[in-house]
Amino acid sequence: MASSIACKVTATLRPYAEPEKARKLPQFFQSFPGGYGEGDRFLGVRVPHVRRVAGQFYGMKLGEISELLASPWHEVRLCALVILVDAYRNAPDRESCVAFYLAHLRHVDNWDLVDASAYHILGDYLLEHPDPALLERLAQSGNLWERRVAVVATLAFIRAGILGPTFALAQRLLSDPHSLIHKAVGWMLREAGKRDATMLRAFLDEHASEMPRTMLRYALEKMEKSVREGYMKRGRSEA
User: Fold this and answer.
1) Please, are residues 82 and 54 in contact by the beta-carbon 8 Å criterion?
2) pLDDT tens digits, residue range 8-65?
3) Distance (Å, whole) CA 53 – CA 56
4) 3-state secondary structure of 181
5) pLDDT digits (tens, 9 = 90+) for 73-92
6) Which of these, 64, 62, 53, 52, lies nearest to 10 by C-alpha position?
7) How many CB atoms lie within 10 A of CB 27?
8) 200-232 burial, b for 16+ CB within 10 Å, e for fewer?
9) CA–CA separation, 10 and 122 (whole Å)
10) How many CB atoms lie within 10 A of CB 4?
11) Residue 14 in contact with residue 95, Cβ under 8 Å?
């Protein structure tokens, strides 16, 4: 039986549910059989409304957030992570929130859930408590979402002007088989390039021929068309 807190949050979300959106989201997040989000369920609540509801439950204890993360509803798990990010920001002991996050990564099981939490919690914490071995372990995981957590966490480093971890993980993940990692790596490379275009160009000069085309395309989005076209000719096939 669902916990009372999970029931309460779900009930608070339901008035914002849009049936048509609920019908479309399984395709968008690939919750169909064989998809990367297989089995996920959706209420059809838009992200701004999820965040609005989350704001009504700030101050939850980690045990209660754990109950939300166990929900079969995607939006309830997103709500839990928004609440957890707030808890992390206000915690006198941030290490406990990070440990909780890592212990519950099995519930951070789609790309939007990763992107809403990884750099806000893990990335921010690692800025003050560097642990390259942790990022390395996540990047080598057989779990798609743990690998994406490793990559997206480095956005916190990028925003602090520390680009080395992003380029190191990008090099490690050049041969990753999944398009969601290609997109995440390309996204982080693009963001790093906004800070230091020379470093990005040097990385691309060395590795463009090894990069999946999706990764390369994302990394090049802010470059001039002629530069993009030149690099894209060097990207490897994803077939």
Assistant:
1) yes
2) 999 999 999 999 999 999 999 999 999 999 999 999 999 999 999 999 999 999 999 9
3) 5
4) helix
5) 999 999 999 999 999 999 99
6) 53
7) 10
8) beebbeebbeebbbbbbbbbbeebeeeebeebe
9) 26
10) 10
11) no
pTM for the model? 0.94
Cα–Cα distances in Å, from 22 out to 12, 14, 78, 108, 172?
Answer: 16, 11, 15, 20, 37
Fill in the DSSP letter of residue 158.
H
Query: Which backbone phi and psi does 41 adopt, to 5 degrees?
Result: -125, 150
Distance CA 76, CA 69 (A): 7
Q: How far apart are CA 172 and CA 174, in angstroms?
A: 6
List, for residues 95-108, the tens digit of each pLDDT value: 999 999 999 999 99
- Give CA–CA dist 229/225, Å, rounded: 6
pLDDT at 1: 40
Question: For residue 164, which phi and psi values (nearest 5 degrees)?
Answer: -55, -50
